[in-house]
Amino acid sequence: MNMKYTVFVIFFFLAVSFVHSQGNRLSTKSKKAAALYLEADNYRVRGQYNQAISLLEAAVKKDKDFFEAYFRLAVILKARGDVYNAEVYLKQVLELNTGNNAPTYFELGELYLGEARYDEAITYINKFLAYKPKNTKRIDEAHRILDNAEFA
């Protein structure tokens, strides 16, 4: 058995057991999609975005309702300047996630500010702030976005 295959099998089983131990905190019920998501996160934190994107795309193919994977894809794509696809994925998150959408609203507000879509930036940042977030750094960033959008 070759070493790469052995490492992959070990990682896969560790990822699956990690997902299982997390009490299914992710929206997906697919263990394979969750394992792909976790593997993608390992690549993302090391700055290996192409690999992370490929794995996240595979995860959403396994589970079309896996909103966390769409969100992570959007954040990576936005950071790389692909705002069109980032917006598409963020809107997909809003359609799928019936829970806390504050992070998605923030990302959309920031995206729209960068695209000079000021009214939309204001709308989404206000939706973010309506959740009364506790992260003071994010709150400060949200107010900066509002100030810039209102000034423009």
The run of helices and strands is HHHHHHHH
User: Largest sheet, if any?
Assistant: none
Backbone structural class: mainly alpha
Total DSSP E strands: 0
Radius of gyration in whole Å, from Cα?
A: 17 Å
Number of helices, where a helix is a run of at least 4 consecutive DSSP H or I residues: 8
User: In whole angstroms, how far apart are the ends?
Assistant: 61 Å
Taking pLDDT < 50 over at least 5 consecutive residues as the criterion, the unreliable ranges are 5-23
Shape: globular
> Into which percentage range does the β-strand content fall?
under 5%
Helix coverage percent:
over 70%
Query: Mean pLDDT across all residues, rounded?
Result: 89
Q: SSE layout and pairings?
A:
Blueprint: H1 3-21, H2 31-45, H3 49-62, H4 67-79, H5 83-96, H6 102-114, H7 118-130, H8 136-151
Describe the structure.
There is one protein chain. The protein is mainly alpha-helical and 152 residues long. The chain has helices at 3-21, 31-45, 49-62, 67-79, 83-96, 102-114, 118-130, 136-151. α5 runs antiparallel to α6 (102-114). The chain is globular. Residues 5-23 have low confidence and may be disordered.
Please name the defining characteristics of this protein.
0% strand; mainly alpha; 152 residues
What's the short version?
With 152 residues, the protein is an all-alpha fold. It has helices spanning 3-21, 31-45, 49-62, 67-79, 83-96, 102-114, 118-130, 136-151.
